[in-house]
Amino acid sequence: MKKTQEDEEINQIRQDLLEQLLEQGKYGKHFESLVEDYINLEKLKRDIQKDIDKNGLRIKVMTGNGFKSEKPNESVQNILKVNGQQLKILQDLDLKTPSQTPKVGDGDDLL
């Protein structure tokens, strides 16, 4: 199976979180499980975002009496809830949001 860019980004996020835990001296299955919870929420958030990108902020629905109507896309509220849960996990673990920027020492030096 071919790894996608999204898979690589998610794996990098996982590694960033695990490295932060190790730097704090936190290790064990409990912490790893919480990181996996965060990763699963990240995947869910990305899927929800795809729905919003595809269907927009409002969606057309058929009412019970046969008329077309618009209503808010529930994915908008769901993405906010998922994001809140992710932030809670990070707060509980005393971690920072993983960044996609290179770490000090990675890449070329500008000097």
Can you summarize this structure?
The protein is mainly α and 111 residues long.
Account of the 3D structure:
This protein is mainly α and 111 residues long. The chain has one domain. The protein has three helices and two strands. A two-stranded antiparallel sheet has the order 1-2. Helix 1 packs antiparallel against helix 2 (29-55) and helix 2 (29-55) packs antiparallel against helix 3 (74-93). The protein starts with a helix and ends in an 18-residue tail after the last helix. Residues 107-111 have low confidence and may be disordered.
Shape: elongated
> Number of helical segments?
3
Backbone CA Rg? 19 Å
In total, the number of strands is 2
How far do the termini sit from each other? 41 Å
Into which percent range does the helicity of residues fall? 55-70%
Low-confidence spans? 107-111
State the secondary-structure class. Answer: mainly alpha
Strand order of the largest sheet: 1-2
Average pLDDT level: 88
State which percent range the strand residues make up: 5-15%
Which structural traits does this protein have?
mainly alpha; single chain; 9% strand; 111 residues; 3 helices; two-stranded antiparallel sheet
